Amino acid sequence: MPDSHDRVTIKDVAAQAGVSVATISRVLNGKGPVREATSRRVIETCQALRFTPHGVARSLSIRRTHTIGLLLPDLHGEFFSEVIRGIDAEARRSGYHLLVSGFHSDRQEMIAVFRAVRGRVDSLIVMSPDREASALCAYLPAGFPIVLLNNTGVSRDISIDNYGGAEAMVRHLRALGHTRIAFIKGPDQNADAAERLRGYRDTSPQAIEFDGNFSEEAGYDAGIRMLSMTQKPTAVFAANDAMAFGVMIALRDSGVRVPHDIALAGFDDIPTARYVTPPLTTVKVPIAELGRRAFDLAISDEEQRHEVLQTTLVIRESCGSTILRGGTKS
Amino acid sequence: MPDSHDRVTIKDVAAQAGVSVATISRVLNGKGPVREATSRRVIETCQALRFTPHGVARSLSIRRTHTIGLLLPDLHGEFFSEVIRGIDAEARRSGYHLLVSGFHSDRQEMIAVFRAVRGRVDSLIVMSPDREASALCAYLPAGFPIVLLNNTGVSRDISIDNYGGAEAMVRHLRALGHTRIAFIKGPDQNADAAERLRGYRDTSPQAIEFDGNFSEEAGYDAGIRMLSMTQKPTAVFAANDAMAFGVMIALRDSGVRVPHDIALAGFDDIPTARYVTPPLTTVKVPIAELGRRAFDLAISDEEQRHEVLQTTLVIRESCGSTILRGGTKS
DNA sequence: GCCGCGAATGTAAGCGGTTACATTCATGCC
DNA sequence: GGCATGAATGTAACCGCTTACATTCGCGGC
Question: pTM value?
């Protein structure tokens, strides 16, 4: 039980060092003039007593927690872990802490988190590609600073050029001679998925679409369904890498070779994309960078700001183009 | 700047509702007797004013933050994201928040975190397979509750049966007829790595060891070195999955087939292990379960407790045994 | 020796809640 | 009607720190 510790407070240090609490505080925070000798004595006493300032007491006093909150749709998968990594790295550099929370795509849980932020975090980063999400901001304390990831809202957000990425990929496939390009869609309500779909539709010669939900299973299912078509596509473009992996397994299980029989492409460029066989051609999303920028935006003063991160085509082997083979070994 | 919000406090609600702050508090926390009508009025006022209790103020008062800290060696890779997921799920169930921090294997950063926990988290989960880590506990406020992951300390810890897992894998390889089994080691100071190595040494007919550090690159390098041996091993057992992936790529790049020419095995069973080609035979570590238990232990009263999680052999295709093929599709 | 003044330090009022204790209120009973 | 009694509510101290403001100290200049 967290009771045994927590005993030594600033008062104890003050008493022991023979000064007032104000002086302790001044020394610890490097504010106000303190005589060199006094300062040394205070520091020694702190060490002797193993004193550490009490986090929430300090936060209450200075009205800042130096913590930012991160709300994710789910903690599954590499995409999210990369985002966390990007944010954490930046937060640490700035002396901030990170409070993470995965809500299982549940509206109520999301609201619960929104109601718990006051006095707990200085700012909130919400990643919820669900289009409805921005509406839920109403449940935040009025005026609470927030930044939206992969979603657009009224105040500050940062998103990905999904449309451009999809467009570039379809162009690449067409350049390789493909005309029957299938697309595996993401979840209906997902903003990223919608943009990727739009990019595909606007660029592909014909629309061959399969439902999906960003999971490997969905990719697998789509792969199986696809193979039963009389006129199979010659290329498959999955709305994210995880689904592309699913397709890959479905094809492998059915003895269909990638890229020889069917070309396969994904979206995101999660770390694993390099390690599957064949390495996956995909659209690279600068995930860690997304996190980094999100953090910077979260602690910035700007009331209003919309950023868009560009994507890049990463050509590996799953589409049969080995001319520009990239990143087999990291 | 986080300044615009944060205006409405419990006092405002009290004034507006025509009651004292104590009553507000009682209603919100469901303590003490409150007349039905009063309660309703308070709740309505809270909603009207969009009042939310101030986190740190509350924490300071009740001397509990309902937050637990998680300190990880690095936020890289699937292993850690799985751990976070396991802990988060359990924390949410118990109404706790999760403060994560990745320290880049830097001693100083770790100490810095240790000094920042007082009054910020109720308990700390530290995952640091580095053997030295438990010594660093001295930098924690005296008596601060902590649980060690994959490391043994004086108070509470939970670790993995690395020895047994390695042993089982080597036995499996021997049963398949292998006698020249190479092992790719983890980092020197890593406790998990040391136990896995010990399991290998105690079971393998001969020791063919390569240095490694749990990274894909290290696996790749070991793979290349291995191929230049005059008498190559017939099976390779990497101390973790990431290194096994590296080996897989090295072999593929050199035209060596797995498992036909060389059998390959890993350790951890991270999600990706199922998706590489061929699917990786490995030792399953119940990662999310590890997180779950760690959390439970963190908030428990037990002063002293050591848990060990069992591992299981997961036979896929990378060792040529297709008899018990498992989990191709999740 | 006294005064003025900046440097060093101390005092105490918050920060926004919780809660022990005090107070008020509504009943029921004599 | 007076009073004991428990329910409902209010008062104010406290959690551990920061900081505005007050106080004291040390010292140079007259």
Answer: 0.88
